[in-house]
Design goal:
A hairpin with a 4-residue loop joins strand 14 and strand 15. The radius of gyration is 22 Å and the shape is globular. About 35% of the residues lie in helices and about 30% in strands. It has 3 domains: about 110 residues, Immunoglobulin-like, CATH 2.60.40; about 70 residues; about 140 residues, Glutaredoxin (3-Layer(aba) Sandwich), CATH 3.40.30. The chain is of the alpha+beta class. It contains 11 helices and 17 strands. The longest helix has 22 residues. Helix 4 runs parallel beside helix 7.
Amino acid sequence: MQQLLLAFVFTVSSFGATAQKINYQITGTVERVTGSKKITLSVRGEDKTTKIADDGSFSFSGTLDKAGEAHISTETSTIIFIWLDEGNLVMNFAEWKMNGRCLLRTTHVSGNDDSYLYFTKTLITRDPIIPTSQEEYATLAQKKYYAYLDSLMTAKPNSKVLVHHIRFFSKQLGEVNTGKLYNRLPESEQMTDAGALIRNYLAQRTALKVGSTFPDFELSDVDGKPFKISSIKASYILVDFWDSHCGPCRVAHKENKVMKGKFNDPRFEIVSISVDTKKHEWLKALKDQDLPWPQAVDLKGFESDIAKHIQLNAIPFSVLLDGNMKIIGVGMDDGSLEPTLAKLMGYKMGPDKNEKIAQ
């Protein structure tokens, strides 16, 4: 069964049918760095688009079955998630550019406690962590976000936002702390779709323990011939899960192309495993992206043996292996992949090229 991409899953899963409707109204402003003239609110997969006035102001109003996550974007920006709830909400946003992309960030939220509480997770991530090493970063991030969530759960134990916060920070928290916080949630919140995503994360971390052997299921390459990850002769292998309809996957592929070029070392290889179910869509995406590393698929989507074995529930997703198929790292979409490889292979990182350290 084809599963929805991560961003869309969070939006749709946050809403459910109830007998009582709630009304919302959003007014706000957008600081623009592009020529954006429209802004779009996506609720339960349905888009509402309105004009941005010359002074940057805009407004939305409507009815919901239930409060929950939605996302908003200008016509030139990426999406950003918000918590849509009853009342007169004031939400201000600002466009900004990074690496040629127009991003959107929330700058102000008021009018509903949970909507503001949802915004605070963005604020906490903007407070920089300054480590002396990647290992120290992981330790400091875990302490920081656990303390933040622990204080929120003490102050607002019945907030509907908490389960989404735990899911959002689960990777930084690690499975032990994520499990502790999840167990403190009311049972009603544990049984939400966001709660299910946390349980899937915990199950996945059990299936993908660092040091354990990664499963070597038989797949097919672009020519339809049998393919196994173990056929790759490299010291370090990044296994990348994606599909042709996944926008964030394309971004990750571009970043991986750059990183692979910076090393230009035969000891490191990437293998992309698609969860596509239609071969022509997979092949077209490969042609469009021109990915210079091995590709594999079995056209069973998220129901494939390998996807089910590792509890795959969202893409993009990656696992770093050593040459013996032992797991070195899981996820690693937090900027830790390149520094980890540099350390393992003996490189000093540079802006355009990573330099081999003389032994």
